[in-house]
Amino acid sequence: MMLNKMPANTTIQAILSYLETDTKWGPRNRAQFALRQQLRIKDISALQVSDVLGLNGEVRCHYIAKDGSVYLLGADLKEELHRYLLSRFQLAGNSLKPLINSELNIPLFPTQKRDRFSNNTLAQHFCYLDKSIFQRFVVQ
Known about the structure:
By secondary structure, the chain is mostly helical. It has helices spanning 12-19, 26-36, 41-46, 49-52, 75-88, 119-137, and strands at 62-64, 70-72.
């Protein structure tokens, strides 16, 4: 698992709020950063909507990677994923149930050019986020 270089004395909530300031990709970056606290880059890039959304219209409590590793998703992470899915699919209200009848075998995190991140591109994206977080919270 990749460890963040989080600025000292900075809460994760402050970082998540900062990441959401990007109008186009803010919710996606926020959800990716939250996932990064628990999952490996190769697992994040391979995530599909069906991996995190159950058939009952709720975010799952766990994720099983392709290699069999099981990751428990805490309440805060589930809330971030719920928030992201509402934003990504532009759902009104607070329910994800309208997604149940949709095609869920699509990548969770699309990019501007492709339908999903490659492992390398996602690692570079996280480096960019680290740099912008560092500039925002450390260099004043």
